[in-house]
Amino acid sequence: MTAEEITELRQRRYNATVVSLKLLNSDLMVLRVKPDFPRPAHHPGQYCTLGLGYWERRTEGCQVETLTAGEETKVVRRAYSISSSILDESGHLMRLEDNDWLEFYIVLVRENADGRVPALTPRLFGLSEGDRIQIGERITGHYTLDPVKPGDTVIFLGTGTGEAPHNYMTWELLSRGHTGKVVNACCVRYGRDLGYHDTHKKLMSQFPNYTYLALTTREPGVTRKVYIQDLITSGELEERIGEALDPAKMHVFLCGNPKMIGVPHRDRETGTLSYPQPVGVIEVLEARGFKADIAAVKLKGNVHFEEYW
C-alpha cells in the first residue's frame, strides 16, 4: 500500500488519539486514548473496543502473520476493560471529570498456542504518543459494582491484566467513601508484571480499609507457588482481611484467566452445574456458600466474573 492510501484509511477509520503510552516492560503497557467525541457515560468495570488497521506495522518478535487478499484494508478490533491509575500525579484520588481520555492495561500477545496469529496487540505495541486509533463509541458490560452496598466487603481477584477493571472499581469505591473492606489481589508470573503495584502500596497507606495482595508464581526466589485458588483454600485470604468469608456481606469479583475463574456448565434441562478442572475459584467459593451469577436465568449472586480470552 502507498503512504497516501494509508493516510486516507487512517483519516476515514480512526476516531481517537493516543495521548499517553507507558511501557512497563517490553510486553506490558498502560495506554491512554482520547476519543474525538465526548467520553461516553459508563460505569467502572465496563469495556469498549480498540481497533487498528491491518496496514499498521507490528512490533518485532511476534508470530508471523500472512494476510489474505483484501484484508490489509480492514480493521482488527478487540474489547478491553477500562482501567484506572486511581491516583493523580499529586497522589490524590483522580477526579474523573478532569480526564478526557480512557485508560487501558494491555499485555502483548506474541503468539497463540492454537496457531491463531495475534493481530491487534502486536500493532498496539507499535504505537507512539500522538498516533491515531479506533475506539468504540459505546462502553458496555454487566461487570459493575451495582450489587454492592456501602458496608459490604468487596474482594477483587484477578490475574495479569485482569486487574484493569478492578483498579477502576477500586477507584469508584474509595471515591464514594465505601465503608466496608476493599481487597484487591492479583496473580502474575513475575513481579515486573504488577504494573500498578506502587499505586496500591500508596492506597494502603491512605485508606485503612484497603488491602492489596500481590502473588507471583515464577519470580526467582519464590519457594511456594500461590495461585488465587490457594489463597482461599489455605485460609490466607481470610487471615489477611481479618474476617471469615461470609456470603451475607461480601461480593467477590473475578477477572482474568478462565482457568482461575472456573465457570461451571449449567445443564439446560436439569439446572445441574458441572465444574471444570482444574478447580476454579467459583467452585471453591460455592462450596463455602457463595453463588455465582448465572446470566442464562438472570440470577445475580455474590460472585461476579469477567473472563479474558
Question: Could you characterize the architecture of this molecule?
Answer:
- The protein is of the alpha/beta class and 309 residues long.
- The strands form three sheets. The protein has a six-stranded antiparallel β-sheet. Strands 9-8-7-10-13 form a five-stranded parallel β-sheet.
- It has eight helices and 13 strands.
- It has two domains: 3-135, Translation factors (Elongation Factor Tu (Ef-tu), domain 3, Beta Barrel); 153-307, Rossmann fold.
Runs in which pLDDT lies below 50 for 5 or more consecutive residues are: none
- Rg over CA atoms, rounded to whole Å, is 20 Å
CATH superfamily of the largest domain: Nucleotide-binding domain of ferredoxin-NADP reductase (FNR) module
* Top CATH class of the largest domain: Alpha Beta
SSE ordering: HEEEEEHEEHEHEHHEHEEHE
Order of strands across the main sheet: 4-3-6-1-2-5
Helix content: 10-25%
Number of helices: 8
Quickly give the CATH architecture of the largest domain. 3-Layer(aba) Sandwich
How many distinct folded domains?
A: 2
Strand content: 25-35%
Q: What's the story with the biggest beta sheet?
A: 6 strands, antiparallel
Bulk shape? globular
At the third CATH level, what is the topology name of the largest domain?
Answer: Rossmann fold
Please write out the topology:
Blueprint: H1 3-13, E1 16-25, E2 28-35, E3 47-53, E4 75-81, E5 102-107, H2 121-124, E6 132-135, E7 153-159, H3 163-175, E8 182-188, H4 197-206, E9 210-216, H5 228-233, H6 236-241, E10 250-256, H7 258-261, E11 265-266, E12 273-274, H8 281-286, E13 303-307
Parallel strand pairs: 7-8, 7-10, 8-9, 10-13
Antiparallel strand pairs: 1-2, 1-6, 2-5, 3-4, 3-6, 11-12
